């Protein structure tokens, strides 16, 4: 639904059936409307409206503030770092999260260290269309949150709901620190809500999205929905799975995770990224070191296969965690 249907975003009109993508577009429009220092920069974000239409019509409504960039991710991020240091609040859109690796030097060696080196804040948001979709293959499907989470000075947000896509992006834009905002492409059009939220849960707080008593499943982004589906499958077997949505993976809300494990005594951490050094590995490590006495079974993690991401939809589905794979991993921990 768009302007031709009389629909406006950003609280400037009425809303009917808001998608995850609508929420991201609406948050950007509200930020542009409320703060003259905000601007959007990226490939084809202007008249074309972005690769996924996350900036559709915004260039027309905010002339000179939704700017097409050259095809140079390194230059895009570098420009944003300079603009942020001079008091602007840039939002940089990568067409795909995978492409952001070209700008890692600017993001990791400059944006992340700017305040430490100079005392000047670097309030910028790097929007990454993340995660896999059928047929996208190894160059358009990666989950990059692990790379960015490794570096101090960067906040990494991974919203899983329409409400969080809207409120967390607004919070990211208002922050004084560089934020990597990982939007899962699989949720763009398929996840819907009745309206934009009127209140927000702080972005750094994890949430229990499904209470349970037998095992804790900690996850984030699109995997939250797979985990909830797996939890529902286990109800018929007499198990109640508590699902915790991290929402932000850096910093990590360890307190909420430990409180959940204290209730259940068991832990499965799930992530769509590869297994080595990911957010799920960090969750297991923290529970093992800070809450070992809470555990009644060894903690387990479940990630994508340690291979490049396949093109074929069937192979892609077998590569990533799904509700079926999560349910099997939950049973394994529960049997211990």
What does this entry look like structurally?
- By secondary structure, the chain is of the alpha/beta class.
- It folds into 2 domains: 15-193, Rossmann fold (3-Layer(aba) Sandwich); 207-335, Rossmann fold (3-Layer(aba) Sandwich).
- 35% of the residues lie in helices and 17% in strands.
- The protein has a 7-stranded mixed sheet with strand order 3-2-4-5-7-6-12, with helices on both faces. The protein has a 5-stranded mixed sheet with strand order 9-11-10-13-14, with helices on both faces. Strands 1-8 form a two-stranded antiparallel sheet.
CATH class identity of the largest domain:
Alpha Beta
Record the strand order, biggest sheet. Answer: 3-2-4-5-7-6-12
> Mind telling me which CATH architecture of the largest domain this is?
3-Layer(aba) Sandwich
Strand tally is: 14
Question: Helix proportion of residues, in percent?
Answer: 25-40%
Shape: globular
CATH superfamily (homologous) name of the largest domain:
Thiamin diphosphate (ThDP)-binding fold, Pyr/PP domains
CATH topology title of the largest domain: Rossmann fold
Strand content: 15-25%
Mean pLDDT: 93
Number of domains: 2
Distance between the amino and carboxyl termini: 49 Å
Structural class, by secondary structure, is alpha/beta
Q: Radius of gyration, rounded? A: 20 Å
Major beta sheet summary? 7 strands, mixed
How many helices? 12
Order of helices and strands: EHEHEHEHHEHEHEEEEHEEHEHEHH
* Model regions low in confidence, pLDDT < 50 over at least 5 residues: 1-15
